[in-house]
Amino acid sequence: MSGFDVSSSERYGGLLLLEVTPAQGPADAIEVVERQLRSFIDAIGAGFFFPARLCPSAPLELYVAGASVHGRVDVDDLPVAALAVLAGMLADGRHRDAFIQSARAVLGQREFDLQIDSGVRPAASEFPPFEVEFPEDMGGNYALLVEIEFAHPVPPDVGQKLLSTLALWDALTLAYPLDPDLPVEAGGAQAMFNDPRTIHYHEWVWDNADAEAWDLIINLCCAWHETLPIVRLHFE
């Protein structure tokens, strides 16, 4: 484990303003940052930072102005530690020739420099309403299997939306390096329903990634559980 602290004790509700300026470099740097911000905002709405949610009172704004990407969204019950996940995602860009010149988040009267990683990540829900199974031994394992078992069969159209949402986790995982001097490698994910009740999610490559990132999947399942009861979440 890298020693990431986890906490969700400090929460925020209101407008979240984001502004990220890539350093001069690849021509597609703006597009890369725009994808990162969209993935982060979509992750809030999906439930990865449960019980945080997006409020429909202020529709998402994500736009490019000059050399910067701007985001504006209304959030409720957002763990402030979630900003460190975005900071980690942006920091990972240096391993992929996507450097950041400046990045900030504004929560009400407070401003956060997203180029400073606090080392704190959002905690998992303390008492998830389903069984969570962790591996006894993680040594030498460079792949990851996640299984999510629902109480009832999931309709195919709903299932496809769940799989698309779960795919957001790959982008979030980049914020959880075991060694910050090396990139997280997460790829080759295979996501499918083994049967109408069970998601089978297999990362063929899952290297230099801290298991604290699993907290986000626990939270996602807590959000899903509110409408689609879950009985078991399994990691190996």
At a glance:
The chain is built from five helices and 15 strands.
Describe this structure as you would to a colleague:
The protein is α+β, with helices and mostly antiparallel strands. The protein folds into two domains: 117 residues, Alpha-Beta Plaits (2-Layer Sandwich), CATH 3.30.70; 105 residues, Alpha-Beta Plaits. It is built from five helices and 15 strands. The strands form four sheets. Strands 2, 3, 4, 5, 6 and 7 form a six-stranded antiparallel β-sheet that branches. The chain has a five-stranded mixed β-sheet with strand order 9-15-10-13-12, with helices on one face. It has a two-stranded parallel ribbon with strand order 1-8. Strand 6 and strand 7 form a beta hairpin. Helix 1 packs antiparallel against helix 2. The protein is globular. The protein starts with a strand and ends with a strand. The mean pLDDT is 92.
